[in-house]
Automatic annotation (TrEMBL), chains A, B:
Protein name as annotated: Putative FAD-linked oxidoreductase
GO molecular function, one term: (S)-2-hydroxy-acid oxidase activity
Gene3D superfamilies from the UniProt entry: 3.30.465.10, 3.30.70.2740, Vanillyl-alcohol Oxidase, Chain A, domain 4
Cellular component, GO, one term: glycolate oxidase complex
Length: 490, 490
C-alpha cells in the first residue's frame, strides 16, 4: 500500500462511494486495482488507491465532490488506450473509470448530431448511424476500443483528420462535472455559440479541468464514392515530396499515410496484405472521397503527381474489399512492430508538411547515431509523424537511450516549426518537453486556466505541465524555471 | 466631460501615452474623440476619455500597463464596423484603436499562412495572396472595411462560412497583450497544438481577455471552378425547405443565402441587378466550388432539388461577371434597407437549419403583431438569420417596440434550439439575453475565465455578460440573479 493509502482513512470513504456507484461500482482489492495501473504508455505505472465506476453525470459529480471535500486526487479514465500516460493514476488517487457510462443517449439524424456518454466506444458512434448513411469522422487507430471521453481528453486524431479535422472540430457541446463537483453545460447543439468557447478549451485538456459526462458530437454524411490509391517509391523522401505536391495542387484527400520499408516488411510478415511491395523504400496511401466524378478526376491527378515524383507503380481500389486490404496493413502497423523487436516506443510529433523529406532524413541519422532502428508510419498529409523506435528492454540502458532518441526527434519537430504532439497528448510522458515549445509566459497563461478550474490540482495532477519536481532533474533536464511549479504560481 | 474624465488627472497620463505612441497617436480633443463614440450599432454612444493609436505590440503593452496601473478601463477598436457594440467605449475609458497596426508582417505561401497586425483590413489578406492562387476564407459583408482584429474579437462569419467555417477555424496563433500588459504567444504556425486551446478561447472573447497584436491566419487555395445558382420561389418557406434538402442530399455548397420579397425589392430599387425577380416570394443563391466536374455534377443536383421544391426558375452563372452580378444585390442588402425605411435594425440569430421554414412563418407573425416590417436576408445554410426590422425613430416608442420585437426573435431562436448570435457577437447589445441561452452555472464558468484574465474588469468592461446593473431593470427585464454581477462573483 502507498503512503497516502495508509494515511487516508479509506474505509468510510469506500462506504460513501459504494452508496453512489453501488458495490459493483467500487473496486477495492489491490489485485483488481492493479488492472488500472497504466494506460497504453506502458512504461509508467502506479496503482490507484481506489477505482470507482459511475453510471451517470450525477454519480460522477457526487464522487468528485467527495474527492474535493477530502482533498483526494482523482483521475478520469476511459478505455485506457492513451499513449501519453494521460490516464496514468496519480499516487493516492481515486480512478474514475467511465466504462459503465456506455449509453448513446440520443441520435438526431435530421440535425446531424449524437449525444453520448463518455464511455461509448468511438466506433459505436458510426455503427449507430451508419445504416442511415452517416458516420463520425475522427478515427484513431484504436477506434474499436478507445472511448469518446478519452478522445475528448486527448483531442484525438486519426487517418481521416487531414480533411475532416480532429476531435475538437466535431464536438458541439458537453455536460461537464467541474472539479468541485458542480455540473455545467458547455456549447450546445448548434455550432459557434456566443460567449467564451469553453468547449474548445475543455477538449484536449487531458482531464485537468473536469470530466465530460455527456457529449454532443457532430456526424457527417458518408461520401458517395471512396477510392484508395497505393503508390510505391524507392525512397521515403520521394513519398514525402509527393504529399506536399498533392496538397499544393489543391487536392485535399480524406487521408494520406506513408509507411517506410521497415514498416512495410514488418506488416507483411504479420498481416500479409500482398499489396505492399517489400522492396519499396516507402508506400503512400491516398484516400479520396466525394462525388464519383470528383473522385475520378482527383485520383487521376494524384496518380500523375505520384508518377512525376518517381512512383514505380500506382494502383487504385474502388471497391470496399480491396480498399480494406490496402488499409489493413497500415492499421496493423503498430501491432506489427511488436513482431520486429521485443519492445517498441511510439513517438508522436508534427512538422510542417513541406519539411517532411528533410525531417525523415534527419530521423534516419538520429536512428544511426543511437543504434536503434526507427520505423516510420505516419499521417503524412498533416505532417504528423509516428516514428516507432525499436529496442530490447533487457539490454542495459536501452530504455534511457530510446527516451533520449525520442526526445531528440521531438526537439527536431519543434526546430522545424512543428509540435511535440499531434494527437497522443502530453500526459505524463511529454510534460518535460513543454518548455521546448512554449515560453514561460505561455505556460503561465495555461496555468492560470488550470488554476481557475482546478485550484487544488486534484484533477489529474502532475499531467501536461512541467514542474521542477518532475522535470528539473533526472533523465530529462530541461532547465524548468522554479516559478513554473504549479504549487508556487498561486 | 464625463465624471471620470474630471476625477482622473489626464494631463500626466496623456504625456505618458504620447511618449509611447507619439503625439499623432493620441487624440485628446472632445471633437476628435467624438468620432469614436460608437461602432456599427449606432443606438449606443459614449465618448471615450482618450483615444490612443499604437503601432506595435510593445506600444499596446505599454498602454495597457498604464491603464492597469491607474485602474483605467480600456476598449480595443479596429474599424468600428461591429454590429453588437463590442467596440463601444465605456465611460471614462482609453480607446485603443488599431488603425495604424496595418502591416502584413509575413506571407508564407508554402505553409499557407499569413501573419498580420490587427488593423489589417479583412479583404487585404486575400489581396496579398490572390495572385498566387490563395484566399482568406471568412468574408463578412463588411470585408472591405472591417479589420482582422475586430474579426478575431467577434469571431466573424460571412457568406462562405457554411463550407469553410468562421474566423476561429482560420486562426492558427496570436501574439496577445494580456490585461496586465504582459505579452504571450498563443497557438503556433501548425494547427492543433498541445496544451489548452487558448487561441480558441481568445477568438470571440470580444476584447474582454486582452488584445491580439499579431495574428497568424490560415489561407486556402482558390477553388478551380466556382458557380452560382439563383433559384426563385413563390414563398420563403419553400426556399428554406430547399436549403435543408440540399444539405440532406450530401451537397455542401460554399454558401447558401436567402432573400425574401421585401429584400429583393429593396435591393432592386437601389442596385438594379436585373436578375432578382421582383415578384418572387424569395430567392435562393447557392454557390458551389471545387473541381470543374464536381461543380457541374453538384449544380445539376442542386437545380433538381430547387425544382422539386417548386422553384419557378433556376439560372446559373459560371463566369465571374455574372456571378458578381448575382451576389451584388445580396451584398448591398443591408445598405438597401436604408432606402426602404428611415431606420432599420439588423438582428442576428441562429436556428437549426431544419427549422427554417417554421421560424420564418413565426417571424412574419411577430412582424404583424408589432406592426413593423421585417426583411429577411440570411445565411440560410448555417441557419443564421439576419432579420432587418424597419422603423422610423421619429415615431414615439418605435425604438422600444423594435427592441422588443428583436428580443422576441432572439427568444424564438433559442426556443428552436439555436443561438442569440451567429456572427455579430454579444457586445453591449445582447448581454441581457445571455440568460435566455445559458444557465447561471454556465455564465459563472465563463466569468471564472474572464476573472482570471481580466481580474479588474478593465478590458472592455460591461460587455458580453449580463449584470443586475445593466439588465436587472429598464427595457429588458430578464430576472438576472444578483450573484451574476461580475463584481459580486469574486
Amino acid at each position: 500500500m502507498l503512503t497516502q493509502e495508509k494515511t487516508q482513512n479509506w474505509k468510510p470513504l469506500i462506504k460513501q462511494f459504494e452508496k453512489i456507484a453501488g458495490k459493483q461500482g467500487v473496486i477495492v482489492t489491490p489485485e483488481e486495482r492493479s488492472v488500472y495501473e497504466c494506460d497504453g504508455l506502458l512504461s509508467y505505472r502506479e496503482r490507484p488507491s481506489l477505482v470507482v465506476l459511475p453510471r451517470t453525470t450525477e454519480e460522477v459529480a457526487a464522487i468528485v465532490r467527495i474527492c474535493d471535500q477530502n482533498d483526494i486526487p482523482f483521475v478520469a479514465r476511459g478505455s485506457g488506450t492513451g499513449l501519453s500516460g494521460g490516464a496514468l493514476p496519480t499516487e493516492g488517487c481515486v480512478l474514475i473509470v467511465t466504462t459503465r457510462m456506455n449509453q448513446i443517449l440520443e441520435v438526431d439524424l435530421e440535425n446531424r448530431r449524437v449525444v453520448v456518454q463518455p464511455g461509448v466506444i468511438n466506433a459505436w458512434v458510426t455503427q449507430a448511424v451508419s445504416q442511415a448513411g452517416f458516420y463520425y469522422a475522427p478515427d484513431p487507430s484504436s477506434q474499436i476500443i478507445c472511448s469518446i471521453g478519452g478522445n475528448i481528453a486527448e483531442n484525438s486524431g486519426g487517418v481521416h483528420c487531414l480533411k475532416y479535422g480532429v476531435t475538437t472540430n466535431h464536438v458541439l457541446g458537453m455536460k461537464m462535472v467541474l472539479t468541485d463537483g458542480s455540473i455545467v453545460d458547455l456549447g450546445s447543439k448548434v455550432p459557434e455559440m456566443p460567449g467564451y468557447d469553453l468547449t474548445g478549451i475543455f477538449v484536449g485538456s487531458e482531464g485537468t479541468l473536469g470530466i465530460a459526462t455527456e457529449i454532443t458530437l457532430q456526424i457527417l454524411k458518408k461520401a458517395e464514392t471512396v477510392k484508395v490509391l497505393l503508390a510505391d517509391f524507392t525512397n521515403v523522401e520521394a513519398a514525402g515530396a509527393t504529399v506536399a505536391d498533392i496538397i499544393a495542387a489543391g487536392v485535399i484527400p480524406a487521408g494520406m499515410e506513408i509507411m517506410d520499408n521497415l514498416s512495410i516488411n514488418a506488416v507483411e510478415d504479420v498481416v500479409k496484405t500482398d499489396c505492399y511491395p517489400r522492396d519499396a523504400g516507402a508506400i503512400l496511401l491516398v484516400e479520396l472521397d466525394g462525388m464519383a466524378v470528383e473522385v475520378e478526376a482527383s485520383s487521376q491527378r494524384v496518380a500523375d503527381i505520384c508518377r512525376q515524383n518517381g512512383a514505380r507503380n500506382v494502383s487504385a481500389a474502388g471497391d470496399a474489399a480491396t480498399r480494406d486490404k490496402m488499409w489493413k496493413g497500415r492499421k496493423a502497423a503498430f501491432a506489427a512492430a511488436g513482431n520486429m523487436s521485443p519492445n517498441y516506443f511510439v513517438q508522436d510529433g508534427v512538422i510542417p508538411r513541406t519539411q517532411l523529406a528533410d525531417t525523415l532524413k534527419q530521423i534516419e541519422a538520429l536512428s544511426k547515431k543511437y543504434g536503434h532502428r526507427v520505423a516510420n508510419v505516419f499521417h503524412a498529409g498533416d505532417g504528423n509523424l509516428h516514428p516507432l523506435i525499436l529496442y530490447d528492454e533487457s539490454e542495459p540502458g536501452a530504455l534511457q537511450q530510446v527516451e533520449a532518441l525520442g526526445g531528440e526527434i521531438l526537439k527536431l519537430c519543434v526546430q522545424k516549426g512543428g509540435s511535440i504532439s499531434g494527437e497522443h497528448g502530453i500526459g505524463a510522458d511529454k510534460r518535460c518537453y513543454m518548455p521546448e515549445m512554449f515560453s514561460k509566459a505561455d505556460l503561465e497563461t495555461m496555468q492560470w486556466v488550470r488554476h481557475v478550474f482546478n485550484p487544488k490540482e486534484l484533477a489529474n495532477p502532475g499531467k501536461v505541465f512541467p514542474t521542477p519536481r518532475t522535470c528539473g532533474e533526472g533523465a530529462h533536464t530541461h532547465n524548468i524555471p522554479a516559478e513554473l511549479d504549479g504549487a508556487m504560481l498561486f
